[in-house]
Specification:
Structural class: alpha/beta
Radius of gyration: 23 Å
Bound molecules: S-adenosyl-L-homocysteine, iron/sulfur cluster, FE3-S4 cluster
Strand order of the largest sheet: 2-1-3-4-5-6
Number of helices: 12
Largest sheet: 6 strands, parallel
Oligomer: single chain
Length: about 450
């Protein structure tokens, strides 16, 4: 009897990469490999990389350094690299010269090639590098090892056409391509049959979803809401410039669409928004927030913000703080501007010194955290319907789950609850990033 081979996948970056890793895991399982949590003893180690900020690059090359040592001592250790970093020629060049022992590299546009390439590596013991410059036709029907049984990510579109001047994603993920609604619906119906009750639709800019038959994002949501068994529909990310009246009406009319939106603002200064090529101004953004709140009272709102974009003055930064105070976000991902070679902003003069960026970042986080805590305190005493995700990592008999508005809630298990159950929880305490409560 032959020994079972194992694999381990390390995933960096966003939900797109997490979803791709589920596909890669599915392909490996079809090839007879079993998953293991121990990367260093696995037969196949896959690193799915992210390129969005410099910090991510550094972490990646650090990880590669660790893998070199294992690769030197074991013949049956195959190292595979994929994800957004692999779509950048300078990265490939660096790997070829500094890490020539890497066995297999593929990109974001040819995940389906992975089994064939791995087969070649293991059979012919020959390094395989295959990167495509842009995405071709969408490949449907790939296998998948889903991370959860009760909730799932579903790609609805790939790529991005927006070219925000700081961002590498359009270069690593290619142009926008939307999946056909019937393919998306079939996938969701199958997920529902398997017991999934929450889907999160993924795309760099879901608002610009448009299928070849003309189906809009709002129409797609309405169709998905008809799928029996699907109780909650989430999506990310929404770009303010493409957020339609039709979508706002869906928030008003379709209960299954959760009362939560992630709407990255990036900056509160019109001058900086223009330099970022975001194609909206602060007034337009604020009017969208107002319309969303009118359409769906209690909707929770989160955002992404970059501080220290080239040329950002103290006044521009104050505009960002003022916008945050006005919106009173439920939460925000805050980033220090990171130079990405190949993007327009990398060449802008007036790069902001690190020290100033860090100081602004700290001030922003303080404002955001104060808003989050104030918002969370409003929940004390309320009863929220929570979808159970499972036991808390730090144990203590506590469970974790999410409200419709995506608030994380922790509460003591009363026995018998399982992931995917919907339970009523009375909120008793508010923290900055979560709520505490008890079942009623
Ligand atoms: N498509 C999504 C998310 C893209 S990446 C959107 O448009 O919102 C996620 C976040 O990373 C971005 O919203 C942005 O805030 C941040 N980001 C992207 N490039 C960056 C850079 N060069 N430096 C710092 N933050 C960056
Ligand atoms: Fe990047 Fe802008 Fe596209 Fe988002 S919309 S992925 S920030 S270019
Ligand atoms: Fe990173 Fe690529 Fe996502 S650059 S943020 S993994 S699309």
């Amino acid at each position: 009897m032959s020994e079972t081979k194992t694999f381990n996948i390390q995933t960096f970056g966003c939900q797109m990469n997490e979803r791709d890793s589920e596909t890669i895991a599915g392909m490996l399982e079809e090839m007879g490999y079993l998953p293991t949590d121990d990367r260093d003893s696995a037969n196949v180690a896959v690193i799915n990389t992210c390129s969005v900020r410099e910090h991510a690059d550094e972490r990646f090359f650090g990880t590669l350094g660790q893998l070199k040592k294992i690769h030197e001592t074991r013949d049956d250790f195959v190292v595979c690299l994929c994800g957004c970093m692999m779509q950048q020629q300078p990265v490939i060049d660096r790997i070829k010269t500094k890490f020539p022992w890497v066995d297999l590299i593929f990109g974001t546009h040819n995940i389906e090639a992975f089994p064939r390439l791995l087969e070649k590596v293991t059979r012919e013991k020959e390094r395989q590098i295959e990167i495509l410059p842009d995405g071709g036709a969408i490949v449907e029907g790939l296998p998948s090892h889903r991370l959860y049984r009760h909730k799932a990510f579903v790609n609805i579109m790939f790529g991005c056409n927006n070219f925000c001047t700081y961002c590498i994603v359009p270069y690593t993920r290619g142009r926008e391509r939307s999946r056909r609604p019937q393919d998306i619906l079939r996938e969701i119906e199958m997920l529902a049959c398997d017991g999934v009750c929450e889907v999160t639709l993924l795309g760099q800019n879901v608002n610009s979803y448009r299928s070849e038959d003309g189906t809009s994002f709002a129409q797609l949501l309405q169709e998905i809401a008809k799928v029996e068994g699907i109780e909650r529909i989430r999506f990310m990310t929404s770009h303010p410039k493409d957020l339609s009246e039709e979508l706002i009406e869906v928030y008003r009319d379709v209960d299954k669409v959760c009362g939560n939106i992630h709407l990255p603002v990036q900056s509160g200064s019109d001058r900086i928004l223009k330099a970022m090529n975001r194609r909206y101004d602060a007034a337009r953004y604020l009017s969208l927030i107002e319309k969303l709140r009118r359409a769906r009272p209690g909707i929770t709102i989160s955002t992404d913000i970059i501080v220290g974009f080239p040329g950002e003055t103290e006044e521009d930064f104050e505009d960002t703080l003022a916008l945050c105070r006005e919106v009173k976000y439920d939460s925000a991902f805050t980033f220090i501007y990171s130079v990405r070679q190949g993007t327009p902003a990398a060449g802008y003069k007036e790069q902001i010194p690190e020290e100033i960026k860090h100081r602004r970042f700290d001030r922003l986080v303080e404002v955001i955290n104060a808003c989050s805590l104030a918002r969370n305190r409003q929940y004390i005493g309320r009863v929220e319907c929570v979808m159970v995700d499972g036991a808390d990592k730090n144990g203590g008999g506590m469970l974790g789950g999410r409200t419709d508005g995506f608030k994380q809630v922790h509460f003591p298990a009363s026995g018998g609850e399982k992931a995917g159950d919907f339970v009523d929880v009375k909120i008793t305490e508010a923290k900055t990033f979560s709520l505490l409560g008890e079942r009623i």
